[in-house]
Amino acid sequence: MFLRLRRLFSISISAAALAALAVSNAVAQSAGENAHIAIENPAELSKDEALRIYQSLQKRMARGYGAAHLDQLLNYQNWPLFNDAPYISATHGKRFVNSYANRMAHNYGTLEAGEKLPLGSVLAKDSVTVTDEGNVHPGALFVMEKLAPGASPDTADWRYIMVLPDGSLFGDTMGDRASSVAYCHSCHEMVADRDYTFFVPEEFVVGN
What we know:
Elements: H1 2-9, H2 15-31, H3 47-66, E1 87-89, E2 95-101, E3 122-130, E4 136-146, E5 158-163, E6 169-172, H4 183-188
Antiparallel strand pairs: 1-2, 2-3, 3-4, 4-5, 5-6
């Protein structure tokens, strides 16, 4: 499987191709009002395979998301990373994701039921689509930012942002296209006791 995927990596993805991909992703996402459009046939990868794929795209992804010029995400790949390899997230369309948190979110990894993350905490999940046919490309960057008390009562004072691979903004609950990402909080209400944040599957937690 990995050899077949690696051959695809050797083909450089042009800026035009990434832009076209971002547009197609946006259209697909718009079709589903209450969930991320799921990948029908995600690849089955070992941790090593998933990690090598991510590492081969990592710098390109950072440059793409950086075009959004969001200060909250500056150098996010240097933040603490809580998974030891990318893992499939059913709540993010069966894409392979990584869970980063900035230094303000110091208790993200140890959060107990009923505890809260501090003001200024930012969580970032970048993503990669890998299908069992060998198609590989960057996915969206999913972001949560903890706001001041009372800033957004409808979302428990969380701001949700989705950035497409070319840096275009798919939606921001506190800005443009807020309705496009309104469903994010509905999903996160499932983990309201953990301050509305999902954590890494146990078998992927760093150190386990």
